[in-house]
């Protein structure tokens, strides 16, 4: 008998019919003899509806009150799912974040979980009940309701799995696992039966939206065995996210997957004096406006000047240009320009640590297709390039092919 | 400086615009120098939406889970109202039932308030904040969410006013006070500036829907000064519900108001043996089906038999007939019949205690219009008659006239 934490997102509980479906799936796990804790999101559309209501009242609502309003979405779902389980004869009980309690810090709308009380959950599990818990929400030291930010239900599930020392945390979503790349772009994309925690972390942060990055970090920190599964299909084992300890279950490949991210815009600051502190002068102004900078490159320029490039989310493109134009004199830049029709394509793989020449294969393959690389950034297990967004599909396809991602690792040449 | 508890119902907070209106009204009270605690209901339609969702999942949902789902309605309103107050520069903080905490018994969907902690409220009031509290909900000893039943927000407001020893509890609704009768039926109906607690109790229980009866009982028990006001109009003092202590503010009239109730059906059980225990035999079967019996009359019959009549809510009419037909043999009744096109009209007034002949004036007035009285029931301060529902408007009109309710009591002949 295992203890399983299952998490169902907004789409999986988006209608009464789908909630009934989830109930049947939970009942199946229970019938298999497992103890089940279920974490649910708000019904899809509900959070957006509540956000819109709040913004109709006030442009920038108080984060505390925003959390009061938003946390109702998940609260409705837990009650409805409990009813759906009762209606098929499964004993179940629902809990909001504060009832558990899931204790967080005070950062309303983006709180972090500090501690989870597990007494009520354990008692109910011991009594044979399914325990249903509202994701995305908690309670801070002032007894105020907090929320964890978008996608926070994944984090709730992983944190609960960690606190309960669950055997597995299953994230049910509208895809049936993690793929070598987006199947809508490359039809040969293959579902990975396993992926290492580190690779998943890179994929999550690189724009692959299967799992929220904080939940993956959390899983890594507490060694929670995480599995991504489809809530729409009944068969399938999904993708298991593994740790070093699970070496024997891991695929051993140089490259495991390809991620891409269209939400990128490039900013160029040309001909700035090549003096210490120039980077912080430029990026400081951007950071002060709460704009997140992703790739950063500084090139040698000519005659004591340097060229500086970085990427920002596309929605912050114009704002970033405006900020820099205002600061242009202070920075002493010759030119400030940019491009918001770029994208980032990344290859990710634990095997890069031991395989050499992976990056050069990537660059050569793109060159062969006349795809110009604008920026490069690397980590131990990934290589990212910034390219013209019109080449996104082509680049992803040829890289998928050259690294033979359509084949199981052991069948690759 | 007074401490005022204001309560706004679902219609008063039914749209974003109306929530903003409520905020302006609260701000006005605050600007007048009063401390304000606001109790709100769910936005109109929201509770019905949630009930419908639950019933789509399960015919008879678990009351505990029903409360989890239903309590979200008020939670959304408190957050939105706090935002609306912030947006006009008023410091405000919202609390759910459990945050206060409003402690109730365990009767889910119809809980009763046991105790209210007032520390958080006092602290915020002392800091100059408006405190907004979700009506209709509380928390039981198990830390489970409870709700007080439909109209429970009135009770929340009165209970809070009692706990805080507020100077006044103002119930804002879509009418501007308590009238001598429904102005849609009698255009001469006059708003009462005051009404005694006992009269209000009779009017509330007789189908006048201005205030929920439990809230009136609560106000009586804890001597909370209650005022009914319009949330749609800005002027007007509404109707103050007074106690014996406020003798000098009270209107002194034989009859204060006329209530009517269309939700009535009459059941006749004819020719039952006139033996002890026959009433409980008949009514026991009805009570076992959770049907609420209102008026009850037992007449002398002939030859050792008796006739038994009572009224039930109209929606329970057929069910009651079915139950009695099944039990007919056991009861030994000659005939079981009924009528669901009846209504109850009642005159209410503290003055009846001292004025004689009120009831006979009522009966004579109805007789003059050829309105047949089917049943009569009386209390110290009211006389109710059951009549054919087609005479409802006529009866109300002629009674309003004969008791001169359109005039202030001191101007009556």
TrEMBL record, chains A, B:
Q: Name one GO biological process term.
A: homoserine biosynthetic process
In terms of CDD domains, this protein maps to: AAK_AKii-LysC-BS, ACT_AK-LysC-DapG-like_2, ACT_AKii-LysC-BS-like_1
Q: Which InterPro entries match?
A: AceGlu_kinase-like_sf, ACT-like_dom_sf, ACT_Aspartokinase, ACT_dom, AKii-LysC-BS, Asp/Glu/Uridylate_kinase, Asp_kin_monofn, Asp_kinase
Keywords associated with the record = Amino-acid biosynthesis, ATP-binding, Kinase, Lysine biosynthesis, Nucleotide-binding, Transferase
In the UniProt record, does the keyword Ribosomal protein occur?
A: no
The record's GO molecular-function terms, alphabetically, read: aspartate kinase activity; ATP binding
Q: What name is this protein filed under?
A: Aspartokinase
Provide the binding site for substrate.
47, 74
């Amino acid at each position: 008998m295992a203890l399983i934490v299952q998490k169902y997102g907004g789409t999986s509980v988006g209608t009464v019919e789908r909630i009934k479906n989830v109930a049947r799936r939970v009942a199946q796990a229970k019938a298999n003899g497992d103890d089940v804790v279920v974490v649910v999101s708000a019904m899809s559309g509900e959070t957006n509806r509540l956000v819109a209501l709040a913004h109709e009242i006030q442009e920038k609502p108080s984060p505390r009150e925003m959390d009061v309003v938003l946390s109702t979405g998940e609260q409705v779902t837990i009650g409805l799912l409990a009813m759906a389980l009762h209606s098929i004869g499964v004993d179940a009980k629902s809990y909001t974040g504060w009832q558990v309690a899931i204790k967080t810090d005070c950062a309303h709308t983006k709180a972090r979980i500090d501690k989870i009380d597990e007494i009520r959950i354990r008692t109910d599990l011991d009594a044979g009940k399914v325990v249903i818990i509202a994701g995305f929400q908690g309670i801070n030291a002032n007894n105020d309701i907090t929320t964890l930010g978008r996608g926070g239900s994944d984090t709730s599930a992983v944190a609960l799995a960690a606190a309960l020392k669950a055997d597995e945390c299953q994230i049910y979503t509208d895809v049936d696992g993690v793929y070598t790349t987006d199947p809508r772009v490359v039809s040969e994309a293959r579902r990975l039966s396993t992926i290492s925690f580190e690779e998943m972390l890179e994929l999550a942060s690189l724009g692959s939206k299967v799992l929220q990055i904080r939940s993956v970090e959390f899983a890594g920190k507490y060694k929670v065995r995480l599995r991504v599964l489809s809530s729409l299909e009944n068969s399938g084992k999904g993708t298991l996210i593994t740790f070093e300890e699970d070496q024997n279950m891991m695929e051993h490949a140089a490259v495991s997957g390809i991620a891409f991210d269209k939400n990128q815009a490039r900013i160029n600051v040309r001909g700035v004096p090549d003096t210490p502190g120039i980077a912080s002068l430029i990026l400081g102004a951007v950071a002060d406006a709460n704009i997140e900078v992703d790739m950063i490159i500084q090139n040698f320029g000519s005659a004591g000047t340097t060229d500086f490039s970085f990427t920002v989310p596309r929605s912050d493109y114009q704002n970033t240009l405006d900020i820099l134009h205002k600061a242009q004199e202070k920075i002493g830049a010759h030119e400030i320009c940019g491009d918001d029709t770029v994208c980032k394509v990344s290859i990710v793989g634990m095997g890069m640590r031991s395989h050499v020449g992976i990056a050069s294969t990537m660059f050569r393959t793109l060159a062969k297709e006349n795809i110009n690389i604008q920026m490069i950034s690397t980590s131990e297990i990934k290589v990212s390039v910034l390219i013209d967004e019109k080449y996104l599909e082509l680049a992803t396809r040829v890289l998928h092919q050259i690294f033979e991602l359509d084949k199981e690792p052991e069948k690759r040449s």
